[in-house]
Amino acid sequence: MFRSRSIKHARLLIRHAEKLIRYRCDVLSETALADIRHQIEAVERSIKQRDLPGVRENSERLDAQVAEHSPSHREAGWRENCEVILVAIVVAIGVRSYFIQPFKIPTGSMQPTLNGIQGFPYRYQSENEIPVDKKDRYEKRKDGWYFKSYSPNSSPNLLRQVAEFFILGRNYINVVAPEDESVREIVEQKYFFFFTWSRIITDRGTHRVYAPEATLVHDFQVAPGARYQRGQVIARGAIDTGDQVFVDKFSYNFTKPHRGDVFVFRTKHIPMIPE
């Protein structure tokens, strides 16, 4: 209980040296094994004699011999970092699967409680074409009704677009047909679980758009079969990101929902509901 720290360290070092002999006795030379055993005996004698200077001196020699004959640990830092990253990933997946999951509201079906992803075409020909819940976002100009963030001749400048992306979660899209083409299909892809892109595949090429397929179809009227002439706008306007929420996946295992609770659910494999 009241042993010197040097003696405790020496005993641990002896244990480590004996382990090295057991593990590497088949690859170390007889001379090396004999030197290590001799130094172990020297440390043990110093401990029995309570010779603290001798314990420290012989421990340093034994430590040097153990380090000399131990296998080198290459890229130990990288290995430790990889282990930490893997553990963090496993913990994050476990929390996401069983406790809390980040979720982006995809549609406006729960407005005004939760706002989904909304698309705002830069221009409508007449006021009657504008959805009722979006009319306050548009203003009358000479040749139509324009989204208020758009200047008369172009989209907002880059600085404003960056600011609105971080403050409002808004991004702007601008897809123009380089030549006469027709839409064949729209393929939605997700990156890193959060970023949703779509590929508008035409008979002339492919356009990548930072927007979900549903938004392109319902808000921008981009659908398979649509034809566009050279220079015609395929999709131009703003897209507001849906509300970001954390879904509690744990509480309802022990309690029942109450009237007025806000919850989300999957609609896959439900008859009569399109997926």
Protein model, in words:
With 275 residues, this protein is an alpha+beta fold. The chain has three domains: 5-69; 85-102 and 246-275, no CATH class; 117-241, no CATH class. The chain is built from six helices and twelve strands. It has helices spanning 5-24, 30-48, 52-69, 76-98, 158-168, 213-218; strands at residues 100-104, 118-121, 123-124, 138-141, 144-147, 170-176, 181-191, 195-202, 206-209, 227-228, 233-240, 244-248. The strands form four sheets. Strands 9-8-7-10 form a four-stranded antiparallel sheet, with no helix packed on it. A three-stranded antiparallel sheet has the order 2-11-6. Strand 4 and strand 5 form a beta hairpin. The model has no long low-confidence stretch (mean pLDDT 86).
Number of domains: 3
The unreliable regions are none
Structural class: alpha+beta
Q: Helices and strands, in N-to-C order? A: HHHHEEEEEHEEEEHEEE
| Percent helix range | 25-40%
Q: What is the rounded distance between the termini?
A: 69 Å
Query: In percent terms, what proportion of residues is strand?
Result: 15-25%
Give the CA-based shape.
elongated
Q: Please state how the strands of the largest beta sheet are arranged side by side.
A: 9-8-7-10
Give the number of helices: 6
**Major β-sheet profile:** 4 strands, antiparallel
- The value of Rg in angstroms is 34 Å
Provide the residue-averaged pLDDT. Answer: 86
Number of strands: 12
Write a concise keyword list for the protein shown above:
single chain, 275 residues, alpha+beta, 3 domains, four-stranded antiparallel β-sheet, three-stranded antiparallel β-sheet, 23% strand, elongated
